[in-house]
Amino acid sequence: MRMLNFDEKKFYLIGDTSVIDVRLHVSLLQVTAQASLLGVPVQPSIPVQILQVFMAMLVMDTWQYFVHRYMHHNKFLYRHIHSQHHRLVVPYAVGALYNHPLEGLLLDTFGGAMSFLITGMTPRTAVFFFCFAVIKTIDDHCGLWLPGNIFHMFFQNNTAYHDIHHQLQGSKYNYSQPFFSVWDRMLGTYMPYSLVTRRQGGLEVRPLKD
């Protein structure tokens, strides 16, 4: 992976924390609005909460896969909306949520709202889920393959997996985000990869398809 020069860093670092703050505040607004309307609900048992979080992950993955893929195949949407995120040729952590506002609304806000409403999570469980989803998304874009990373242990959709999508050769593959790779595998958009040790040190992710 190449290093960013000073001008690129200055460009990409604008609003780093603000995009994360906005995403979390929108999620919190969703759950607090429901809490204010319905009162404080009783928390279900731990197994039920775990099932709700897992189902929310599936709902969000399904929504984001198809919207994300459509944004790549629709030239107008890609040129005017999604291409902003793909300015990150070299992904980095807090650039994960560097999106066009409309993309943030379609992918994250709508996807989060559906995950919340369909699964019937309480506001407390939803806050945990949204924070977890944001942290996972940030890790997927960090560009670092760190030993002992718990996300790499439990999720095949990880830093290297999504890094392929940001490469030119992989831009039509690995649409799934942020948790599983099931839709890519089922619908033929999965691109395998290998991690190669670089001569200069560190690892480089390379696609295995021509």
Automatic annotation (TrEMBL):
Highest taxon of the lineage: Eukaryota
PANTHER family: STEROL DESATURASE
Recorded family membership: Belongs to the sterol desaturase family.
Subcellular location: Endoplasmic reticulum membrane
Keyword Cytoplasm: no
Protein name, UniProt field: aldehyde oxygenase (deformylating)
Keywords: Endoplasmic reticulum, Lyase, Membrane, Transmembrane, Transmembrane helix
GO biological process: lipid biosynthetic process
Molecular function per GO: aldehyde oxygenase (deformylating) activity; iron ion binding; oxidoreductase activity
Record field: catalytic activity: a long-chain fatty aldehyde + 2 NADPH + O2 + H(+) = a long-chain alkane + formate + 2 NADP(+) + H2O
GO cellular component, one term: endoplasmic reticulum membrane
Recorded topology in the membrane: Multi-pass membrane protein
EC number, as in UniProt: 4.1.99.5
Domain Fatty acid hydroxylase span(s) in chain numbering: 54-189
Coiled-coil intervals, chain numbering: none
Pfam families for the chain: FA_hydroxylase
Species the sequence originates in: Musa troglodytarum (fe'i banana)
Keyword Membrane: yes
